[in-house]
Amino acid sequence: MPHLAIPRDVRTAYKRYFTEPKITRKVCCPDCLNSSEYPVDEVPLTCTYRTSPKSKPCGASLFRTVRTRKGERIDSSCLLTTQSLSSWIPSFVKRKPIDDALHEHFQNQRPDTPNEFHDVRESPGYKSIYGDDDGPYNLVFGIYVDWFQVFKMKIRGKKASSGVIALYCLNLPPHLRYEPENLFIVGITPPTSKTNHRNIDNLL
What we know:
Blueprint: H1 10-17, E1 23-27, E2 63-68, E3 71-76, E4 79-83, H2 85-93, H3 96-107, H4 124-130, E5 141-149, E6 161-169, H5 174-177, E7 184-188, H6 197-203
Antiparallel strand pairs: 1-4, 2-3, 4-7, 5-6, 6-7
């Protein structure tokens, strides 16, 4: 029996077949979750986001004083961490099961049947945008946002909501589409006690 070079440690396997994600961290307002691309040396002390040109700025503090053993230091109040989609896609499509599934799902598309759809790719709306011959590598993603209570569902005590923003590839068959290893995690939203549609818009 030939010798198989199977990694004994999952970290070795991960290093061989997966690339490290490209992570970006930027200052984010703890109140309105605005994460404007401020130059590193020009980040204002307070949030300058306005809901409209004539409205007052948010004004929340973007920095805080942190006490350490070596004394006090100024740190950002909140950071938004995101992953690069352009650096993730190559490692996604080079996985053989994914590449095979993309081709198989593209080649096995169902014929048009009026008023009967088994997948979003068969809908008139999808085809009006991407057509019938979109190709296996013309990747299309859906977006998923879900929120959860950081401090659990307690009636009393501190409350804050955080959320995950993820993309799922519509080119994959449904049984693979929503598997955790096939999702692109855009980022985890910073905890906030002021969750509303405007904050979500600022993140997206």
